[in-house]
Amino acid sequence: MSSSGSTYGDIHRYEPARESTAAAITIVLLTVIEVVFVFMFAYGLVSGWGLSETGNMFLGAILAVIFVDLAFILALYRKEFLPDVVIVKKRRRKWEDLYIREEDVDGETLGDGAWDTVKRAVYPYYKR
What residue ranges are annotated as transmembrane (predicted)? Predict the structure, then answer.
């Protein structure tokens, strides 16, 4: 579904999410695996596995598996359960957010001394 509106904030394209049952079951299974690895990591930390070299590497590997599993859960959720929406944004020139006028792109001198010749371009985020 797309609209022909071109004003700021109009929805240009909207595609609903697929919401498949297989993706939901996969997310639940990955979440169970995530909880098991989190408990294994917590048990290893409490029981002192990190005091030996191999135990420390094992805890690092478990932590890596935890984050990779979480990445798969979030990627699958984003792909299957969030709609694809494109909205119309206002296009601006590069200098509009930084300066008041186009002539102020080079900045202004604030004083006559050597230390006082600071230009406004040094501080580009000047509030209007």
Answer: 21-45, 57-77
